[in-house]
Design a protein that fits this description.
By secondary structure, this protein is α+β, with helices and mostly antiparallel strands. It is built from six helices and five strands, in the order αααααβββαββ. The protein has a three-stranded antiparallel sheet with strand order 3-4-5, with no helix packed on it. Strand 4 (150-158) and strand 5 (164-168) form a beta hairpin. The longest helix has 11 residues, at 29-39. The protein is extended, with a radius of gyration of 20 Å.
Length: 169
C-alpha cells in the first residue's frame, strides 16, 4: 500500500486535520486510516477479517508508531473509526486524488477538453421525520409515495483513466 499512498502522506493528512491521538492507543489513527482503505480490497469480509488480512504475512512489520498488533474486536475497530472521523479520509483523498490521463492519453480529451461523466443513483434512507422533510418521498402524485424516503446522489467525474472526483447530493 505504501507504493500507492505513502505512509508519510497518511501522516500528513492526520496532522493537517488535527486527528493525532492524545494518548497511545491499541489502534492508532494511522492504522485506522490504512484499515479503512483496506476495507475496499476485502469488501465482502468482516472488518476483523480485513484487519487480519492486512497484517497477515507482515508479522515483523512495524507501523510508524512502532507497535505490534493483536487482533482487535469489531467494537474496538468501530470505536477507533468513530474517533478518527471522516475528515482524515477526506483530506487524504484531496492529497492523493488527481487526474491520471494527460492530453496525450488516447480517448481522455476531445477538442482539447477533458471528457467528463455524470452518473447517479437513488438510495433508501431511514424513515424519520427529518429525512422525509429534507429528502421527501418519490412519486409523481401525492397518493403515490414510497414507503420510505429516498436520497438521490449524483456523481460528477472525469471519464476514463480516472476516478469520480465529487459527490453532490
Amino acid at each position: 500500500m505504501d507504493e500507492v499512498i505513502p505512509s508519510q502522506t497518511i501522516t500528513n493528512a492526520i496532522i493537517s486535520t488535527s486527528s493525532i491521538e492524545q494518548r497511545q492507543r491499541i489502534l492508532p489513527t494511522h492504522v485506522v486510516v490504512v484499515l479503512v482503505i483496506a476495507m475496499s480490497f476485502w469488501s465482502s469480509d468482516s472488518i476483523v477479517s480485513v484487519f487480519k488480512n492486512l497484517i497477515h504475512g507482515f508479522a515483523s512489520l512495524r507501523i510508524p508508531e512502532l507497535i505490534r498488533f493483536k487482533t482487535p474486536t469489531s467494537s474496538s475497530i468501530t470505536e477507533a473509526r468513530q474517533r478518527t472521523g471522516a475528515s482524515v479520509m477526506t483530506r487524504l483523498f484531496e492529497m492523493v486524488a488527481k487526474p491520471l490521463a494527460t492530453p496525450l492519453t488516447p480517448g481522455a480529451f476531445l477538442g482539447g477538453l477533458r471528457i467528463m461523466a455524470v452518473d447517479g443513483t437513488v438510495m433508501d434512507i431511514p424513515e424519520t421525520q427529518e429525512n422525509a422533510r429534507v429528502f421527501g418521498y418519490p412519486g409523481s402524485r401525492q397518493e403515490d409515495i414510497s414507503s420510505i424516503p429516498k436520497s438521490q446522489v449524483s456523481f460528477f467525474g472525469r471519464s476514463r483513466y480516472s476516478f469520480n472526483y465529487r459527490c453532490i447530493h
